[in-house]
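Lab notebook page, bench 4
Experiment: in silico fold of construct C2
Operator: M.H.
Input chain length: 354 residues
Purpose: comparison with the prior construct
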Amino acid sequence: MKIAVLPGDGIGPEIVAQAVKVIDALRSDGLAIEMEYAHIGGAGYDAAGDPFPAVTEKLAKEADAVLLGAVGGYQYDNLPRPQRPEQGLLRIRKGLGLFANLRPAMVYPELVYASSLKPELVSGLDIMILRELTGDIYFGQPRGIRTLDSGERQGFDTMHYSESEIRRVAHVGFQIAMKRNKKMCSVDKANVLDTSMFWREIVTDVAKEYPQVELSHMYVDNAAMQLVRAPKQFDVILTGNIFGDILSDEASMLTGSIGMLPSASLDANNKGLYEPCHGSAPDIAGKDIANPLATILSVAMMMRYTFANDEVAQRIETAVRKTLQQGLRTGDIAEAGMHKIGTTAMGDAVVAAL
């Protein structure tokens, strides 16, 4: 198993280092894993003047899976768009054809108190959000800033989806639903957007191939409301790039902290990029207080989806659960009186539990 490790910026190197400890522990147990490091995001710009350097692209394409920390930092905010760290993330997703973004939102019993919602609303919560990742308004052309004939400046972006893009991610959604509770909600804005009307039409057509799955449709504004009103009504949520970006971050707060949410971005052959859902958090970088559990849980997703090793994935998830049961917490999930520890100590605790 060859893994490209891209720590990135901000807290990225700190949290990735803890995930690497877990991988090293698995190697000690006999798993054949190779790791090679490269730069991405602001680190890529600093090293090569490019947020997605050619050497990083080569490594990522040759690897079986990619483990990524986070990108971005205040010092890069004034760079031209092509050099900004976020472009590295968009380009690696596009370059590797990673069209299916899996973002689970699960509430551990030990963390029910940490949610911003009442315990009865989130206890037992287990949602899988599937976000299409390489189309939609983030990649649509034309885009830019122009000056109209009137002399007024105008910003513009283009939202579009091809039928093949919708079909392939819909199939992934239905296949995931088949392995869960056979229920999927497709989220769009079909009452306003032609792109969403087309999305709904294609998803409905694909549903004919999965008669066992109960398909429903919901407008994105209602879905955002329902996620905080009655989140356990959802099992699998399928949606486009921009809506998925927003809803998955909202869902993260149901779990108590975005520091608990892993993600997987897969191509058609289950090659994947694995990263925590949170950002680079430059304000806490270097302070040893970031939560590394989302990154460690991303390694579990890597084992499950790319390497088809559910046993190892469950070992990692169980180790995280045992660590939480011991009362160990980073600051983002700690309550008064709990044993608050830092990033490094949390990584060590998970390895010990493993």
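Observations: The mean pLDDT is 95. Residues 51 and 82 are 8 Å apart (CA to CA).
Next step: discuss at group meeting.
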